[in-house]
Specification:
The chain has 354 residues and is mainly alpha-helical. The chain is 74% helix and 1% strand. The protein is globular and about 65 Å long. The two termini are 28 Å apart.
Length: 354
């Protein structure tokens, strides 16, 4: 049953299986295991980035396409929810309309980009997508009557998803059963379903063709596959999943702006997570997103504790100052690339093969 659920793509390594189960259980019971607004917020962002990074890996790791327009589709999803809820009011109908309109727009844009740009090779396609993403970010900032400009949009969700809503007056197992609790599990269910859907896609005959194109597009075309069609479909599917990840972000934050979903920093984070987790492995998105976001949110706290504990040692407190957390995050990334060139998942599977 589990084998079929995972599309016959098992972890193939005991340690990796343990890590994935641990991440799943921590995310599944996060409101009970990690009380506090920050911990729940980090858990929700991990869920969102699992979907976002897995959708990009569908493009980069499985098809071999380098695109810098992924945050554009992510932003379209977030703006779709934000604009619909602002214009139509809080309601599940507004959420559905916003998500459907965002997916439709992403379908059209990704299809146009795919048909007109995927005939261009390698770096030239990447530059085209970068230009399109930059233009879209500028457009989102200037159309202030729709997008709120640089200030973004604050909006309300249905009452059952609002923080003020309470299912019970008392805590249940240490967690408040409020609207935030319900929203988190809505995101959790969406993440699991979307991840399983992407896992099914990459392990289908369609996914095998994408991998063949990644390995040798000339050979795949010689066999008879129309590589432009398959690349375009891969681009469209990745865009749709990224749009749905953007919808998840907007529902969680109840806000969206250019820096929230369209920033190039998000694109850099996606690339880092893909490399850390392992390209061409859906499980890499799970491991990479969890590791990166935990380091991003808690490395400063750990460094503060380390700096306090080494006060009597020369130089160490200065080196371990929380202000230098980006330096140490960069060092950790370099070490991970050096020791795990194929990513965490790829390295663990290689060890298992030996």
């Amino acid at each position: 049953m589990l084998n079929r659920l995972l599309s016959h793509d098992l972890p193939r390594n005991r340690l990796l299986a343990v890590v994935l189960v641990a991440i799943f259980l921590c995310l599944a019971f996060a409101p009970f295991l990690f009380p506090g607004a920050k911990a729940l917020n980090v858990s929700a962002k991990i869920l969102i980035f699992i979907v976002l990074v897995a959708s990009y890996d569908l493009l980069l790791g499985y098809t071999g396409i380098v695109s810098f327009a992924h945050t554009m589709f992510f932003g379209i999803g977030a703006y779709g929810i934000a604009i619909a809820c602002t214009r139509l009011g809080p309601g599940f109908g507004s959420l559905a309309i916003g998500a459907l309109c965002a997916v439709a727009l992403s379908l059209v844009l990704s299809l146009v980009i795919g048909l007109f740009s995927l005939r261009v090779r390698a770096i030239f396609y990447a530059m085209i997508t970068l230009a399109v993403a930059s233009a879209f970010q500028t457009l989102a900032s200037q159309l202030s009557q729709f997008t709120g400009g640089e200030d973004g949009l604050n909006f309300k969700l249905p009452e059952v998803l609002s923080p003020s809503f309470l299912l019970k007056e008392d805590q249940f197992l240490g967690a408040w059963l409020d609207g935030r609790f319900i929203t988190y599990y809505l995101l959790f269910a969406a993440c699991v379903l979307l991840f399983l859907a992407m896992l099914r896609i990459v392990n289908s005959p369609f996914g095998r063709v994408l991998q063949a194109i990644r390995e040798n597009d000339f050979r795949a075309e010689a066999i008879g596959y129309r590589i432009v069609v398959f690349r375009t479909l891969s681009n469209v599917l990745a865009a749709v999943f990224a749009t749905l990840a953007g919808c998840m972000l907007a529902v969680w934050l109840r806000y969206n702006g250019p820096d929230t979903s369209l920033s190039f920093e998000i694109m850099v984070d996606i690339l880092l997570i893909v490399v850390i987790g392992g390209m061409g492995t859906m499980y890499g998105a799970v491991c990479g997103a969890a590791m990166f976001l935990l380091a991003q949110n808690y490395l400063q706290d750990l460094m503060r504790l380390a700096a306090d504990a080494t006060q009597g040692i020369p130089l160490l407190p200065a080196l371990l100052s929380p202000d230098r957390w980006l330096l140490w995050l960069g060092i950790l990334f370099i070490l991970s690339v050096y020791f795990f060139p194929s990513g965490v998942v790829g390295k663990l599977r290689t060890w298992n093969a030996k």
